[in-house]
Amino acid sequence: MSTWQGNTALAFASIALGLSIYSHTKSISTDKPVAIQQAKPTLKKLAIPEQDRENLVALHGYILDLETRIHELENKAPAIDPELLATLVEQAIEKQENERRAEIEKRNPALGWLSNLPDDYRERIKADPQYADSSINEALAILLNLSKSENERLAAYGQLKMTLSMLRRDLDDSQANAVTDAMISISEYTNDPKIRISTLENLSRQNNVSPKLAEHFQKLLQTDDNDYVRNISATALIGQFFRATRDGNNSYASDLAERIIALENSSNAKVAEIMAENLKGPRLREELDKALGK
Questions:
Q1: CA-to-CA distance for 105 and 103, rounded, in angstroms?
Q2: What is the pLDDT of residues 86-132, one digit of tens each?
Q3: 171, 155, 245, 231: which is closest to 206 by C-alpha?
Q4: What CA–CA distance (Å, rounded) separates 28 from 34?
Q5: Closest CA to 165 of 221, 199, 137, 206
Q6: How far apart are CA 278 and CA 285, in angstroms?
């Protein structure tokens, strides 16, 4: 029992004692009124009956017993070691942090790796070229390793893209194609719809021009049952067109422009609707017409 609980019990007991005395006194003054001319009653005349005295003695004993028990309980309460308390707090914080990281990785595996990087990762990859090369090669190896889980491979892809972006570097053509193949493979064979969506979203933001990627998204636009996936695919095709134009790959840009216009005029009403919705920008129309020689 805590100190305040013990004090509360004592307070109630004291109130009970007071009420008992008050009740007895009030009873005497009510049952036997004193004449006005009579002198003040003496203590002997207000003597408490034997039965009430016994009750009061018992109540007093109960109060003393409560005091004794409270004292014993307070003495038995173990003192908390400050070092142990600090350790327990650290463990609780670490557990909470691990749970937070697991939740982030569960929601988006391609972003969960961020919390696992060293605190000085961004500074180290900029200041130490060897460390940067090692980080890129390690992330690439994990992404291409089929024995790794899909979450691990997506996490490696996220780290790879961020590192390359911060260093303003690109993979060579062979490496870029290998990354595209790996991500397409994950999107096609995963059994987890959330991983599939995450993979396709990352693929749609690929910065390199890839005919294989354009073919993949064109097929999804024409055949997938998920409207969100179809919209991602339309956006990715348009993005590939702009990247080809940016890189001066006019032949490929012209080919993509023809495909985009053909999809907009498709006999498949859903395909035509989605593509038309993504072609509303006036600048995009101008670029498509220019690539088609209009």
A1: 5
A2: 777 777 776 776 666 666 566 665 555 666 778 888 899 999 999 99
A3: 171
A4: 10
A5: 206
A6: 11
Stretch 32-42: mean pLDDT: 45
pTM: 0.62
Question: Which pLDDT score is estimated for 274?
Answer: 93
Checking if the pLDDT of 195 tops 50, the result is: yes
Can you tell me the distance from the alpha carbon of 160 to that of 157, in angstroms, rounded to the nearest whole number?
5
Tell the residue number behind the tokens 């004291």, with chain if given.
14
Half-sphere exposure of 92 (CA within 13 A, CB side): 6
Q: How far is Cα 240 from Cα 252, in angstroms, rounded to an integer? A: 10
- Do 202 and 183 meet the contact criterion of CB atoms below 8 Å apart? yes
Give DSSP secondary structure letters for 197-232. HHHHHHHHT--S--HHHHHHHHHHHHH-S-HHHHHH
Which of 50-59, 102-111, 242-251 is the least confident region?
Answer: 102-111
DSSP 35: P
